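To illustrate the input format used throughout this study, we show a single complete record. The first block contains the structure-token representation of the backbone; no residue identities are included at this stage. The design step must infer an amino acid for every position from geometry alone.
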């Protein structure tokens, strides 16, 4: 049976609300001495500037860092050490807010609407969608509509399951989908002010909450928040797109959407996921 968008939004919202309520009930039943979610402050390192002005999406690959720009809609692959451009393509995305590489394609979280930041293009849409594009040329292969409607930010491909995780902003969740037909497999809560960057690491889902300047580590099976890492709202560059590489979490500052006092547009930053680790990123 095919589920309509309206029915899915209602069901999806109820499911997310039910999971949150369940967690709240569990917390109330726990003793007062139960430990809170481990939280720590990140020590930010500024790495280099992006090739374009408004980087809003990141993806990690062994041979380079992929960067999607929110205004030009260009995607670049740059050297991890120097930021030198290794490859770049023009895409038909709009308000690029997420980027994944997997299954032989580039997947773009096109958030809909360009807010007058550039001249309109024929491929612009007023709503969010995921664009499946050719890795070498950036040309659109297929457009995937979002059954939950609304916008989309982060997106990540999980090689172990050959699935995509996508931010579902209208229902404050992240959804695991089959990239072949975007059939929804799982939904997990993603609460906060603008869930944005998204990545998978060692069996856990990391969700960057841009407006709250923090990242949550989430158990994909239970939806439980396992760890929180915060960045400074006053002195660190604003967090938007995010990816994980060689023990570091990288993020970018697009310089748009409620920029804070620490905003440094085009800055690429990183911090250690495990601050006790001694290995160096390469």
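Output of the design step:
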């Amino acid at each position: 049976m095919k589920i309509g968008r309206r029915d899915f939004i209602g069901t999806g919202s109820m499911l997310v609300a039910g999971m949150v309520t369940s967690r709240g009930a569990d917390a109330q039943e726990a003793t007062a001495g139960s430990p809170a979610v481990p939280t720590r402050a990140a020590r930010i390192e500024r790495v280099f500037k992006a090739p374009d002005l408004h980087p809003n999406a990141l993806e990690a690959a062994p041979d380079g860092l992929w960067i999607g720009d929110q205004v030009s809609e260009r995607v670049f692959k740059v050297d991890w050490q120097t930021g030198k451009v290794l490859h770049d393509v023009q895409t038909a995305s709009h308000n690029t807010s997420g980027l994944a590489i997997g299954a032989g394609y580039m997947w773009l979280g096109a958030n809909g609407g360009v807010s007058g930041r550039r001249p309109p293009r024929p491929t612009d849409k007023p709503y969010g969608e995921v664009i499946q594009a050719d890795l070498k040329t950036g040309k659109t292969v297929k457009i995937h509509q979002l059954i939950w409607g609304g916008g989309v930010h982060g997106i990540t491909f999980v090689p172990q399951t050959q699935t995509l995780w996508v931010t579902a902003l209208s229902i404050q969740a992240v959804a695991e989908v089959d990239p072949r037909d975007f059939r929804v497999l799982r939904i997990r809560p993603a609460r906060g002010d603008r869930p944005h960057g998204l990545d998978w690491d060692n069996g856990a889902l990391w969700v960057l909450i841009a407006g709250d300047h923090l990242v949550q580590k989430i158990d994909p099976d239970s939806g439980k928040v396992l760890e929180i890492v915060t960045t400074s709202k006053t002195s660190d560059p604003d967090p938007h797109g995010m990816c994980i590489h060689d023990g570091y979490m990288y993020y970018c500052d697009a310089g748009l959407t409620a920029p804070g006092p620490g905003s440094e547009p085009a800055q690429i930053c990183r911090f250690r996921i495990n601050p006790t680790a001694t290995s160096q990123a390469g």
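Structural context for interpreting the output: The chain is about 10% helix and 40% strand. Confidence is low (pLDDT under 50) at residues 16-32, 278-282.
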